[in-house]
Design a protein that fits this description.
This protein has 191 residues and is an alpha/beta fold. Helices cover 48% and strands 12% of the residues.
């Protein structure tokens, strides 16, 4: 997937949603996952899903997912699909919406946004699979992520969670944070 492919997919969604909105209605769509890295850094990375933060009870988002979710005719035709991710999974830092960057474009309905690099990196720390580690390496190597801000983002993502002993996901995320900090400090050459 390349940056232009993601943007073209979003433009098709935008065009289709025009038929389903009331005057002035918009949809803020927060990209997370690999597609956000592709858009931010212009990289060509393998993925078919466009992960978005899922807000329950948003009719326009529901319509977008109905039209462009996995196994829909639009997704089959375009080769990409929207994948809703609940706000708590992966853990997303608090106030990420306010800090997110607008994705430039001539949008009519969509208001696509991407989290700041620290916030996006924090979403990768819990699962920490091979693609997550690759994404973290890209974010760290960009020079836009530092240990202090990443720790703050992760603390914010787990602000209301149980302590590490009671929450295995939190424990895993903080253990992985230690690995990423070692990488940022040059003490580790791979993630």
């Amino acid at each position: 997937m390349e940056r232009d492919e993601v943007l073209d997919f979003l433009k098709v969604i935008d065009s289709e949603l025009v038929q389903h909105v009331r005057e002035g209605e918009t949809l803020e769509l927060y990209l997370i996952g690999r597609s956000a890295i592709v858009v931010r850094y212009g990289l060509n990375l393998a993925t078919k899903d466009i992960d978005i933060v899922h807000f329950h009870g948003c009719p326009l988002e529901s319509k977008a997912l109905e039209l462009f979710g996995k196994a829909t005719p639009h997704a089959e035709r375009l080769g990409f699909y929207l994948e809703p991710e609940p706000q708590g999974l992966p853990p997303i830092p608090g106030s990420y919406c306010r800090r997110s960057d607008d994705i430039p474009g001539s949008w009519r309905v969509l208001r696509p946004k991407q989290p700041k690099p620290h916030d996006l990196a924090a979403t990768k720390l819990s699962r920490f699979h091979a693609k997550d580690r690759e994404d973290l390496r890209i974010l760290c190597d960009s020079g836009e992520v530092n240990a202090d801000e990443l720790r703050k983002a992760l603390d914010s993502a787990f602000a209301f969670a149980a302590d590490e002993d009671e929450d295995p996901q939190r424990k895993r995320a903080y253990a992985n944070l230690g690995i990423v900090i070692e990488y940022l400090e040059g003490k580790r050459h791979r993630l």
